């Protein structure tokens, strides 16, 4: 350990007093204090002062200040926009999770509630899916007896009584009918656009037809239904009923389904496979109950016909009539009449609407030849539905409208229906339109559309829209041209205004200002003035006479300028012209001109009264 | 439907914790006792995030020393109270600008010192009577100062009275120190602040601080020398 000097002690004194020295230095310092009296006394004196200072009381701040400061602190940290702060908190990751979870649960609850209320989600959705899957499974085609078990398992999932699995005791006729139905409905389901929609077997109607002795007409009725389906009408036949508990398609789905005539299975509504057990009349005792079922009639894969698979085969039962049914039939559209019923309604018969189908306008319609029977019937179905729609929309306006107006309304509806469909269907609809309403102003357009559609079908035109655009463009151009022609023809051409009276004075002044007086032209100008005075009407006599009166003076001025003299100053018309002349003339000449000016002015003033007198005369 | 929405809304808002509750960095509530154990810097950081209770702890921890510093500096109680309020108001307003890498006390006493300097500058323009100024300006009197005339609660010669008298003399001697020496002396003696931190507050080198401290002690030793015997008697 080195011994500290007093100078070092002075440097380290404060650190020693306040215990900020390192331990080694502290020991050295203490050793030096033990040996040095002066340093020890110095340190002792400072420690005495410190001890006295420590005796100073510690003051307490007023407590009111604390509360006030806390209030200020809270106010300072209070957000200016509490909602913004809350939103910021919501955006924190941890809280965002809660918010998103709550929002998602809310959405789910609302969706489920809405769907359950509207019936869009069936509670037996899974069972239905299984039923559809089983029903669409291809099964070997077996004659009449085999199809029954194919559809039965899927249809009995809801606990309802399923169709009989075993072949019931039935006659050969029933089997044959069932077979026929299977084939026809299978075609219908596979290729005619009814796939995926439930078909209902209505035994009651079959029995009624049997009792009335009417021909069951399977072929005919099915054809009508197929035609109806192709037309995109409402329902596959006349006896379509839409149970309330079944799903209804939205307008968009309907439009899409009707557009190509082949609604996909995914677009098709999920329908509960309801199987109702009802004992058909006339069925022999012991025969099993025949189900009235709503079952999917096949998907896009065109599965086997399942409707017939569930048909009962009673020995004495009449041939069942399959009534294709679209469960998603629009509620506003009333069920079209049965195919067996006469198509034209009373109102239509009055207006002769269907008799005009062969062509011709309202006047020529009654003489038109009727089209084919089936086509007429099919057209009758859609037409009656259209008329009922019109009646529903327009109310009594349609019923009370005159026949021509009704036809126009029908034409509008038919043309509108022909738009937005496939080419084949559009051609057909437009041909009908042209045939029915040859008097309509859209016939030409319809023909063009038909041509375009045909061209497209044959591959000649790949873009029907381009054709239509061209057509629209040419139409617009034509209308524009017509409008221009009309505007040109009717343009208002105002009568040409009479020429303003010649202000000779002004002309003279302006010429004098521009180029000064020209002595050579002066006589010619004077002659012009005289001619103008002769030609001018009496009304402008004042100005003309003024000009006439000024003419001699101006003439004199011009001559004076030509001689190198300044014109007379009082002559207003010649005043500007005098400036360049005066500049050009020598000073003496200018002085002479000044002297001569009053005399000329006197002459001019004398000539004016004379002219005035002439005018009065 | 509306009842469901109301219920979901209540659940939604219930997931949002109350902002008035003190929370740690993980969002858990922190009791007040735990706040008292935290450092000044941590408390200041909490207050920056809007936790007023952290500021309450800070205020309770520093209001006394700051007040004593201010009082010893300006030697006026009312002015010290005003300055105390100003100091903490500046802390509140400047809390957003505070950075944790700086020591809170350094920041706090820098604010206090700046305010004191401003106050003393303002006082210089006032012609206030000094306690040490002789009452009789003509010099004909006995030379008694104003501070000697002001009663100190009685002149009985007992221990308490001697102590009070000594205390008044010490306060007077401190107030007579040069401003640079006074602030260093107060920080070192009253606040027990290390020389290094004093140097940071006053923005002068540490050795300068020490020398100022030594001059202040020497000055006080001179002032209190006449009370040395009295001090011995008090002891």
The two chains with the largest interface, and their residue counts, are: A-B, 46 and 54 residues
Looking at how many chains there are and whether they match, the oligomeric state comes to: heterodimer
Strand content of chain A: under 5%
Topology of chain B as a string of helices (H) and strands (E): HHHHHHHHHHHH
- Give the overall silhouette of chain A: elongated
State the helical fraction of chain A.
55-70%
Helix content of chain B: 55-70%
User: Can you tell me the residue ranges of chain B where pLDDT is under 50 for at least 5 consecutive residues?
Assistant: 16-22, 153-157
First-to-last CA distance of chain A: 151 Å
Average pLDDT score of chain A: 59
Word description of this protein:
The complex is a heterodimer of chains A (617) and B (235). Chain A is mainly alpha-helical. Chain A has 24 helices and four strands. The C terminus of chain A is likely disordered. About 5% of the residues of chain B have low confidence. Chain B has twelve helices and no strands. The radius of gyration of chain B is 25 Å and the shape is elongated. Chain B has 235 residues and is mainly α. The chains are: A mainly alpha (617), B mainly alpha (235). Chains A and B meet through α1, α3, α4, α5 and α6 of A and α1, α4, α5, α8 and α9 of B.
Task: Please outline what is shown here.
The complex is a heterodimer of chains A (617) and B (235). By secondary structure, chain A is mainly alpha-helical.
Which terms would index this structure?
heterodimer; A: 617 residues; 4 strands; disordered C terminus; B: 235 residues; mainly alpha; 0% strand; elongated
Write the layout of secondary structure elements.
The complex is a heterodimer of chains A (617) and B (235).
Chain A: H1 6-17, H2 23-35, H3 37-54, H4 63-76, H5 82-90, H6 93-118, H7 125-135, H8 147-155, H9 172-191, E1 198-202, H10 203-212, H11 218-231, H12 251-260, E2 275-278, E3 290-296, E4 321-324, H13 346-351, H14 373-394, H15 396-400, H16 403-418, H17 423-436, H18 443-457, H19 464-489, H20 504-515, H21 522-535, H22 541-562, H23 575-584, H24 587-616
Antiparallel strand pairs in A: 1-3, 1-4, 2-3
Helix pairs in contact in A: 1-3, 2-3, 7-8, 9-11, 11-14, 14-16, 16-17, 17-18, 18-19, 21-22, 22-24
Chain B: H1 2-14, H2 32-37, H3 40-48, H4 52-74, H5 77-93, H6 104-125, H7 146-149, H8 159-175, H9 179-190, H10 195-202, H11 206-223, H12 228-234
